[in-house]
């Protein structure tokens, strides 16, 4: 229950600066929304469980004075807007306006672009109706997730906007490691993909040049790859980079290509999903690429290092303290040394019966004249919840992006129900156990 006697509000504008970093849900409250919250428990919950509540009304300020003998300052929604926009403009980033009609959004965009030159502005106009359908919600979430903005302004009138933002906000903390959850219905084609030999044999390969739709044009790379736009994006910019020839998905002979792709596509992080680690085309070799900075691990890994396994010429090999995920990180200013270290890792991992290579996902990015390579050795293709019946079912087929910290849920009910415990459980099944990971590190040390 939302009570003026107990509710915690921001007391003055300067407290806006003191809010913690990271993803925050900030709401405003005035007399009207306070009264509405007395009758609408979902609205009250959305206001109370946000990260900050701002008194945007003279009567709230007055009520605090009489009821709690506390002097607080009115902070208008407009103050919050200016504060956050100025802050983002100083560092640069993306802001998203969700709500209103196309004409208003156009005017907002024109003005915002002029006032805040360092902010990229994106918008989406939801349908004008009392209740959104599931499809409406899907489209809004997809529009926002595709941009992955630093700031999201939701303007759909109270209490609708607060409830909507609260219901669709998802960031989970798994033993101190942040995982975003993305609701992405289009990814059902990959997460739900049948990758058994028979199903693969019976379908037309969608990565072979002969089967690409005529509108899908690629850019050649390295003489035997072409760079395509991914038709089912997770990232705002998402590429698929298949080999020209129809040949199985394997990493050993292609890892150097991956390093070269990262060096050429400096705005992107390149990733590889093993044939049984999330690749939906295990029969046709390919990499993917998504714009840099989208996956939490790219920025966070340094703060998560558990130790250095070894130095190796111009490279270093680290491992992270991020169980139940198991992560090795190569950092190298030399392509050859990075490739040698990867080869040592590859030879230190077990190969499952009936497999040709150790199960793994790999991310590579290149910045400040060095490669950073994340290797996630895998134990299993899909978690038990993937095939579980009824309530226990959760359609999660983890691949590089999930292990990089963005969990993809193609089904809305899964998006709504997934918890940090679910993510931990999934990771503990598909990643190496602590004991096996320890063994792998021992073998690597012996080989270096
Ligand atoms: Zn093919």
The secondary structure category is: alpha+beta
Beta-strand percentage range: 15-25%
Main beta-sheet strand count, sense and barrel state: 10 strands, antiparallel
Shape: globular
Total strands: the figure is 18
Spatial separation of the terminal alpha carbons: 61 Å
Tally of individual helices:
16
Radius of gyration in whole Å, from Cα? 24 Å
Tell me roughly what share of residues is in helical segments: 25-40%
Query: Strand arrangement, largest sheet?
Result: 8-9-10-12-11-16-17-15-14-13
Summed over residues and divided by their number, the pLDDT gives a mean of 91
Question: What ranges have pLDDT less than 50 throughout 5 or more consecutive residues?
Answer: none
- Distinct small molecules bound, one entry per kind: zinc ion
Topology readout:
Layout: E1 26-29, H1 31-39, H2 41-48, E2 52-55, H3 58-68, H4 77-91, E3 93-99, H5 102-115, E4 119-124, H6 134-147, E5 151-155, H7 160-168, E6 171-174, E7 177-183, H8 188-191, H9 197-202, E8 219-221, E9 225-229, E10 238-242, H10 255-264, E11 268-273, E12 286-291, H11 296-300, E13 305-312, E14 315-320, E15 328-332, H12 335-348, E16 360-367, E17 370-377, H13 400-403, E18 406-409, H14 412-417, H15 420-430, H16 434-447
Helix pairs in contact: 1-2, 2-7, 10-12, 12-16
